[in-house]
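Write out this protein's structure.
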Amino acid sequence: MEIEGKVAIVTGAGGGIGAGLARRLVAGGARVVVADLDADTAAKVAGELGERAVAVGGDVADRQVIAELIATAEREFGPVDLYFANAGIGGGPGLDSTEAQWSAALEVNVLAHVRAAELLVPGWVERGSGYFVSTASAAGLLTQIGSAPYSVTKHAAVGFAEWLSVTYGDQGVRVSCLCPMGVDTRLLSGDLIPEDPEAAALAIKAVKTAGKVLSTEEVAETVVEAMAAEHFLILPHPEVLHMYRNKGADYDRWIAGMRRFQSMLTAS
């Protein structure tokens, strides 16, 4: 998969990984719809990218907004080739998370992916090509200390991406799932669990302690390289694969290790 000449939609592109992806795609010759809940930040990023980008503001978990993104891409640039389901939120802390926090995390982190696929995949199957890139997290392969909704919904995002690839991979639909650890975004500045500073601090400490915090530019470059090779799992932090293998090799030992890690974090 080459990105030059392709038409892409990137959600959550007003900042963070999404903005990094939009910039890298345009630099590689793609044309991009920059989508974000914050219309002003989306417009700012698109404005920096020039005529190869347009901005759309709205809730990308809303089916009508997703349809508007697709219509805008088709009107401005042509049929959508690449969809980056990148928007994500932290959710709540643990068992005290509210129904609203669980619902919001499920909507943005999972159902936004499902609805985009429902609107795009049938056309891609008919055309024989299309690429869906889901941003999950290393938490979707491992777990997230401090936030139950984030951990659970990121696992679900990985699961949906797997199902999508298995079901449509032989019909021209390529799928990749991005699972980074720490990335220099707003999620690491207190937005992971904004309603609970103590849980947010624990979650952020866990992420920062686990490995290097990468720049959004580094992550975007890794994504493009992985797409060129059509890898399913995109792991900007290669050590995640080692952790995942250890988890699968001895689940009980891995859980015990995670308990020790959590105890260390809470004691420090």
